[in-house]
Fold:
Amino acid sequence: MNHPATLSILNGHLIDPANRIDEVRNLHIADGKILAIGEAPAGFQPEQTIEASGLIICPGLVDLSARLREPGQEHKATIASETAAAAKGGITTLCCPPDTDPVIDTPAVAEMIQHKAQQSALCRVLPIGALTKALDGEHLSEMVALKKAGCVVLSNALTPIRNTLIERRALEYAATFGITVFLRPEDPHLRNQGCVHEGPVAARLGLPGIPGAAEVVAIARDLALAEQTGCKIHFCRLSYGTSVAKIRQCSLPVTADVAAHQLFLTEDDLIGFNSNCHVIPPLRSQSDREALRQGIADGTISAICSSHQPHELDAKEAPFPSTAPGISGLETLLPLTLKLVDEGVLSLSDAIARITCGPAAVLGLPLGQLGIGSSADICLFNPRQRWQLATDELLSHGHNTPFLGCEFTGQVSQTLLAGRITYRRERDTPST
Amino acid sequence: MIVPNQSNIQLDAEGRLKHFLTIEGLNRELLTEILDTAESFAGVSERTVKKVPMLRGKIITNLFFETSTRTRTTFELAAKRLSADVLSLNISASSTSKGETLLDTLRNLEAMHCDMFVVRHADSGAAHFIAQHAAPHISVINAGDGRHAHPTQAMLDMFTIRRHKGDFSPLKVAIVGDIQHSRVARSQILALNTLGVAEVRIIGPATLMPVHAEALGVKVFHNLDEGIQDVDVVIMLRLQRERMSGALLPSEHEYYQLYGLTDERLEAAKPDAIVMHPGPINRGVEMDSQVADGPRSVILQQVSYGIAIRMAVMAMAMQRQGGAQ
Structure:
């Protein structure tokens, strides 16, 4: 790929929700940054131009949770493979949770991940630091050192902190240094051995269930501690309708995200023991899905993430409860979000906001928008291109997605990270 | 969005039984065919030569990832009476402890040219998984997977009910005890509803009921005396020892006080009501010995009918196979 110092993207439909732009505009880039929108500055001679008529130009996607599996589980995926998949999905920034092996609880691991990501240079990778050492829920991590090493936020990944006092201390310490904490709300006692939503389908299939209360109890606890400590918290991967209502009602400045698959799949998709639908938090009822969609529409949930969890084939080849949970989601984040527009859940501009400036605001970073001077992280996609998800099209090493064979409308044509092309679809026809 | 899903893998293209994994998805005609076929085999056990040559030359492997005496023995006997060669493997003790995956175990057994797997496993969905991954000529019979299904047990219970009651349509049936953890109950409920009984009731405390139990097609009762009022059949479930004390139930004693079946309490049921239990019984916990050994108990008949039902299911699944070759 070539990397011109100056570039113009012409005749595309620019949608930049943070800057309230939704019209055909030219975009001019110099030295990896947005130089001008609309008219080119006098005398600007771009080294390269991209003809984008019929395409939508939006900020590169910001994904709040994508597991790259490196270090420690390279048999599932690598930083190189997954950042390539991210670029193909229009993603220019992703956050990787700390549950790697070793855990991201020292600056060395955080720096190693960023170093490897910079080598492949296909996506900006922001490591999420561990809130407690080895995610043990007992000893606070060196939060400030992690922050200095590039961890923008901290989290205990999928391991809830069992001891409320430790959680209080962790949030207090994080608040002291202005660090945002990501919490995946789940009461471990109510979760018990559960692997699916405790509902009619679990009753029929005899699978151990996780009650919705497991999420609501944790949210109530986390909100009380956030109020107590003044820590800025963000709820990850909501799954239950009541959770959305609780967050909507609360007066604290908390934010929340949802995994894209959670807005489409329900417990009914488990019938036949489909292990590709084994996810945590579990797929819940149709009414929960509607409540999550409502939360996305009214902004209670400000970010949609891929919750990317690539697995090797064997991890899903076992009886359902013994399979590893998770969906390989980087390459379906944009198409699923666009499907919400097709299904009338929210406008195209709001949909793009939930995968660009929405998550960027959660991180407190000036990403996910294309204002003058900001990094030229751009996704160009053809909103009318119909395509089918097939295994051989996936760049992710994880082929574990229940959406194989599904048809989507809207396909990434090019992705740029700081003005450099990180993905370009071959044989793309700009308009159909 | 409902993701692409496999259709009923239990049936072949002609609608004949290929695998027997769950009652779900099977219609009344097929369940009746199983019962009728079992009826024709029921006499074999009473003959001096207790064998028919139906499955001569076939290899049936019992794959038991969970220990079992009764079910495994009756499957073995059933296969032998059909003249098949039987291999019984207690996998929990062998391969898996060496790190071999379930799929590896399966491939090895396929290489030994098995024709049928009889599977018991602690995970719900295990039999489905094996059926999905086994070579196309192999039939899979579920001998119990997690809390999900135990369809041959349910069918032998249906066989017992039909022998005593004839017609299913007027019957009220009560299932008492730990429904939540019971694959037997799940399969019984499906079978009873498919065969068209008037009413299925489940009786027990909320801690032993699945949440959303009504979705199974039952009426939920928490009081035994109310629940068995005027029923034709009472099915008592085994209460696992480890569930008797702790957070699910306060004590064995209190459980017996509330849900233990005695002759006195059985008075509430119809005068000709029968009492069933999948075994083994905890005497003095689920039921009184007087009931278990009394005139209304059909518990031992259930065991002997188990062989006929398992012969029927094996023969039906293999018949298809014979036809294909």
